[in-house]
Design goal:
By secondary structure, the protein is an alpha/beta fold. It has two domains: 25-110, Rossmann fold (3-Layer(aba) Sandwich), CATH 3.40.50; 136-262, NAD(P)-binding Rossmann-like Domain (Rossmann fold). Helices cover 44% and strands 17% of the residues. It contains ten helices and eleven strands. It has helices spanning 7-23, 40-55, 71-83, 102-108, 120-128, 136-149, 167-176, 191-196, 244-250, 261-294, and strands at 3-4, 30-36, 59-65, 89-92, 156-160, 180-184, 200-203, 221-224, 228-232, 235-239, 253-254. Strand 5, helix 7 and strand 6 (180-184) form a beta-alpha-beta unit. Helix 1 (7-23) runs parallel beside helix 10 and helix 6 crosses helix 7 (167-176). It starts with a strand and ends in a 5-residue tail after the last helix. The model has no long low-confidence stretch (mean pLDDT 95). Bound molecules: NADPH dihydro-nicotinamide-adenine-dinucleotide phosphate. NADPH dihydro-nicotinamide-adenine-dinucleotide phosphate (NDP) binds at residues 137, 160-163, 165-167, 184-188, 191, 204-207, 225-228, 261-262, 265.
Length: 299
């Protein structure tokens, strides 16, 4: 049987570290979470994020708007949050109602406050290896992989899924960690064979238990990003994109669903908010020094 990668425990360690860092800052980092409409899954995610923000001592700026909110009004709110110096991170919970252009909204968020890492500026920085805000779920996957395997150099990583929020950014991070990376998607031929050659499998598809046990090479590490709600034996259950019980027979290590990647996503959101806040403080500090110099004020 394989090692169960405990995302809950890793996330708790990261949150404790962040809480310690927050105490040392001159003022609290602030995160604004914007929810439009009443999608039940989104409401749960947003509630968990806001709770986590408060638990590490950050300030929460919740904005829960009706589904009838216009794109213009949402963009106006983003502008206000961009200009609010107490808000260091802005997260717009997806999906947005169909009447709103989600890409337009995400691009309106200042890249410096884009704690989800979805703005093209941050996606571009990740692609060229510059420091920016990295999407939370991929960052969480990398932390779990490094904690489990240490050095990832030379390992063959197969990423199943090529979305902008999971598949593509995790592939960039794996490449930065010197893995040999194969990105697969719905048009990939013979996905089972490609998966069988993987030392690391990242499953981010959105289809319950799609990756079968006999697709996993003996000794591989499996990171299951998928969250799927299914009915089994008359009960509602959360399962991943990997057939966990079968995959655990071959894998060296595997993340469970729930309790694997999910908690890391929220912890990494807090980490990005802390980073955005520290950068803004450094900038304020630089700005104060510049003004002092201009005004001839010596420290
Ligand atoms: P998307 O729907 O945006 O992307 C799914 C990807 O899977 C696409 O690239 C698609 O390929 C690929 N795909 C679909 N069917 C197949 C197939 N038969 N074979 C191979 N690839 C296939 O999903 P997301 O990336 O947003 O999310 C993926 C999963 O991760 C979902 O279950 C989601 O709930 C979960 N998730 C979990 C998070 C967490 O915190 N744990 C955070 C974010 C997401 P193509 O591009 O060709 O269509």
């Amino acid at each position: 049987m394989s090692l169960v990668i405990d995302g809950k425990a890793s996330a708790a360690r990261l949150r404790a570290y962040i809480a310690g860092q927050v105490k040392q800052l001159p003022s609290n980092p602030g995160l604004a979470v914007v929810l439009v409409g009443a999608d039940p899954a989104s409401e749960v995610y947003v509630r968990n994020k806001e709770k986590a923000v408060e638990e590490v001592g950050m300030a929460s700026f919740p904005h829960h708007l009706p589904a009838t909110t216009s794109e213009a009004d949402l963009l106006k709110l983003i502008d206000e949050l961009n200009n609010n110096s107490n808000v260091h991170g802005i997260l717009v919970q997806l999906p947005l109602p169909g009447s709103i252009d989600a890409q337009k909204v995400l691009e309106r968020i200042s890249p410096a406050k884009d704690v989800d890492g979805f703005h093209p500026v941050n996606a571009g920085k990740l692609a060229v290896g510059q420091d920016g805000l990295v999407p939370c779920t991929p960052m969480g996957c990398m932390i779990l992989l490094k904690e489990t395997l240490g050095d990832l150099k030379g390992l063959h990583a197969v990423v199943v899924g090529r979305s902008n929020i999971v598949g593509k950014p995790i592939a960039q991070l794996l490449l930065q960690a010197d893995c040999t990376v194969t990105i697969t998607h719905s048009k990939t031929k013979d996905l089972a064979s490609v998966c069988r050659s993987a030392d690391i499998i990242i499953a981010a598809i959105g289809k319950p238990e799609f990756i079968k046990g006999d697709w996993i090479k003996k000794g591989a590490t499996v990171i299951d990003v998928g969250i799927n709600r299914i009915e089994r034996d008359g009960k509602t259950k959360l399962v991943g994109d990997v057939d966990y019980a079968a995959a655990a027979q071959s894998a060296k290590a595997i993340t469970p669903v729930p309790g694997g990647v999910g908690p890391m996503t929220i912890a990494c959101l807090l980490s990005n908010t802390l980073k955005a806040c520290k950068i803004s403080w450094d900038k304020t500090d630089e700005e104060i020094k510049r003004i002092q110099q201009l005004a001839g004020i010596k420290k």
